[in-house]
Amino acid sequence: MAVDLSEFEHPSWLTAAGTGIGYVTILGLLTLLMFVVPWLVFSAL
Question: How many domains does the chain have?
Answer without folding.
Answer: 1
